[in-house]
Every structure is written in structure tokens, then in C-alpha cells.
Write a structure and sequence with these properties.
Dna Ligase, domain 1; four-stranded antiparallel β-sheet; seven-stranded antiparallel β-sheet; D-amino Acid Aminotransferase, Chain A, domain 1; Succinate--CoA ligase [ADP-forming] subunit beta; alpha+beta; 3 domains; ATP-grasp; metal-binding; Rossmann fold; tricarboxylic acid cycle
């Protein structure tokens, strides 16, 4: 689950992580009211969407008068903001964040993320603040500092020293402030079961203070039961409605850009299925893991969600029955054909628990557009052929 910048900064404030003052607004008039309450003579009007790159997309503007705050808020609210993270379809801006101006002497990058290879959190930092970190990693990887933190000992002084030395911070007072900042950010990450915290840019002011000028946070959905305060921050309008619906049925669904719908049990097998489809010359339209407790209802719902995508030209059902029984999947396929207009070829590979019974169920059903496959390679090849109209 992701949250907006203004929400991330509310959490930062609870932990003493310095941020500029700001207020969220849903209308231009609310933006004007916020600017008056903040005071000063310069403000930043920021689009609030769950994506980075807002500035380059025209979603972050500087206002030098109250009239300009209203004008810019009016321009940004209601716009479809396209960034490198939204995709070409963009995201509708429904909120703006009005923030006080800041004295920017330098811009840095700072984040806390999970390093899956090391199975530990790492603090990533760079002197190239304000830039796309992926571009920095590609062109100047030596400018990214990575500090691995063993959660059994937590953030220690030597982690902080490694960080400030890597960033080239030599002033003792500034070193102390940066170490304190990073320590608090790490505590936020651990306390809130975050998957990622990113501040880009983290600014250094003329007084040598470090302030989070931006804030991006994502959380482990599986841990939200421990954090009802985070669940309350959920903005459903920012989430893919199909992914949201799938989660309510215990399905893990992610929309992709291809033409072959995938229904698989187990994340590893799902990834392997998509790789095999690509190898065979096709492109997957989605990731869909029905999990180990799939039944006829959830399988039918999976078909319904997959077929909402108009680009889907074939569906590949690839089930290896361990916990989940193949006959349940077969009954789910039959149920789907009754509840949903399954108008594309469905290639089915069922193996494992109760596979013979499943094959008999599908055979007796005599459904014209359901095509049996013997194994993964055969199923992927048939799915690619079906999507091309060659089957």
C-alpha cells in the first residue's frame, strides 16, 4: 500500500523527521486558505498522486503570490498527470499540497529499502538529489552510497558515519544532524513495516539543517493488520480497481501490457509462466496468483477480472496442484463459463493433486474454446498461437 506525500510527512513529523510546513487542499479556494495560514511570500503547489516524477510532469509549481497559488492549484487539480511512473495513461490529480518555501543550499537523495539479496534493510543515499535515482544508478553508480543495516542490531553510529563520509559531509555539526535524520528515518521504516521510504530531494538549508522536501512511502500489505492508522490513510482512488477487487477475493493480480491472460497458483510458477510466454514469442497481460485456497468462486472471479482487459486474446491457466486441487480449478473454469462471457481461447494445463479428475471434468463439459495442454512449454506455445489467431 502506498500513501501520499502529505501523509508521509505527517508520519515523519511524529518521529521528529524535519519537514516543511504544509497543508492539503482539494479546491483552489482551499489552497488559498492554506497559503494564508502558512504565511510567507512563496509557496509550492504539489500534485498528490501515488507516483514519482511529478515535477518533470508539471505537477509541482512555485507560487510567488496568493493569486498565483489559486491559479496554479486550479491548473493542477483535475489534470491527468503523466510521469515515468504512471505510464502513458497518467493519474488524475484530486489533491494538492501547499507547502511553505524552503532555503535550498544543496539537494541530496535518501531512502530506506529492503535489499532482497541480503535480506536486510539498506539506506541508500546520493549527492544527486532531485534526479531520477534509476538514471543516477545507470549512468553514475559510484554516486550511490548503500549502507546495510542488520535489523538484529538496528541503526548504529558506525552506520551513520559510513553514510556521512560517503556523502562527503565534513562539517561536524552537519554530520550529527544527518546521522540523527537517518536514524529517525530508519525507525519509521521498522516501526511502520514499510517496504520503502524515499526522500528526493532531501535538502540542506543555508543553516546546515536537513529537511525532507519530498516524501514517498510504501507498506507491506500483509502487515496492515498491525497498523490500522495506516489502513485509514488508504486512497482507493489511487489504486487499480481490478487489483483492489482481486485482493478482496484472495487473488494477487497485477495488470500488464500483453495479450495473454495468465491464471497460475504460486508466485514462482506465475513468474516462470510469464517468462515462458515471453520466450515463446508472446507477452503476458497480467500476473494472477490464485493461491493455495482457490475454489470455483475465486477462479471464476479471476476469469472475470482478466477478461475486463480488452487486450486479452487468450488465457493460459497453469496449475500445479499441491495444496490447491486441480478438480477445484476445473470446476472454477466451468463456473466461469456460466457467469462470464469467456470469448477467448482458454489453454489449460493442470498437473498434480486430482489432475486426472480435473481432466475428466473438462472433457465431459465439452467446452469448445477450452484447449488442453500437456505441460508448461506446450501450454505457453498454444497460448501464444491462440493469441495470434493461429490455433
Amino acid at each position: 500500500m502506498n500513501i501520499h506525500e502529505y501523509q508521509a510527512k505527517q508520519i515523519f513529523a511524529q518521529y521528529g523527521v524535519p519537514t516543511p510546513r504544509g497543508m492539503v487542499a482539494n479546491t483552489p479556494d482551499e489552497a488559498v486558505k492554506a497559503a494564508h495560514e502558512l504565511g510567507g511570500n512563496i509557496w509550492v503547489v504539489k500534485a498528490q498522486i501515488h507516483a514519482g516524477g511529478r515535477g518533470l510532469g508539471g505537477g509541482v509549481k512555485l507560487a510567488k503570490s496568493i493569486e498565483e497559488v489559486k491559479e496554479l492549484a486550479g491548473e493542477i487539480l483535475g489534470m491527468t498527470l503523466v510521469t515515468h511512473q504512471t505510464g502513458p495513461e497518467g493519474k488524475l490529480v484530486q489533491k494538492v499540497y501547499i507547502e511553505e518555501g524552503a532555503d535550498i543550499k544543496d539537494e541530496l537523495y535518501l531512502s530506506v529499502v529492503l535489499d532482497r539479496a541480503q535480506e536486510m534493510p539498506i539506506i541508500m543515499a546520493s549527492t544527486e538529489g532531485g534526479m531520477d535515482i534509476e538514471t543516477v544508478a545507470e549512468k553514475t553508480p559510484e554516486k550511490i552510497i548503500k549502507v546495510t543495516i542488520d535489523p538484529s542490531i538496528g541503526f548504529q553510529g558506525f552506520h551513520g558515519r559510513e553514510l556521512v563520509f560517503g556523502l562527503g559531509i565534513t562539517d561536524k555539526n552537519e554530520q550529527r544532524k544527518m546521522i540523527d535524520f537517518a536514524s529517525k528515518l530508519y525507525k519509521v521504516y521498522m516501526d511502520k513495516d514499510a517496504e520503502m521510504i524515499e526522500i528526493n530531494p532531501l535538502i540542506k538549508t543555508g543553516a546546515g539543517d536537513f529537511i525532507a522536501l519530498d516524501g514517498k512511502m510504501g507498506f507491506d500489505d500483509s502487515a496492515l493488520g498491525r497498523h490500522p492508522e495506516l489502513e485509514d490513510m488508504r486512497d482507493i482512488s489511487e489504486e487499480d480497481p481490478d487489483e483492489r477487487e482481486a485482493s478482496q477475493y484472495g487473488l494477487s493480480y497485477i495488470a500488464l501490457d500483453g495479450e495473454i491472460g495468465c491464471m497460475v497458483n504460486g508466485a514462482g510458477l506465475a513468474m516462470g509462466t510469464m517468462d515462458t510466454i515471453n520466450y515463446m514469442g508472446g507477452t503476458p497481460a497480467n500476473f494472477l496468483d490464485v493461491g493455495g485456497s482457490a475454489n470455483a468462486e475465486t477462479v471464476a472471479k479471476g476469469f472475470e477480472i482478466i477478461l475486463k482487459n480488452p487486450n486479452v486474446k487468450a488465457i493460459f491457466v497453469n496449475i500445479f496442484g499441491g495444496i490447491v486441487r486441480c478438480d477445484r480449478i476445473a470446476n472454477g473454469i466451468l463456473e466461469a463459463t456460466k457467469l462470464v462471457d469467456v470469448h477467448v481461447p482458454v489453454i489449460v494445463r493442470l498437473d498434480g493433486t486430482n489432475a486426472p479428475e480435473a481432466a475428466e471434468i473438462l472433457k465431459n463439459a465439452n467446452i469448445a474454446n477450452v484447449i488442453a495442454a500437456t505441460d508448461l512449454a506446450d501450454g505457453a506455445a498454444k497460448a501464444v498461437a491462440a493469441a495470434k489467431g493461429e490455433l
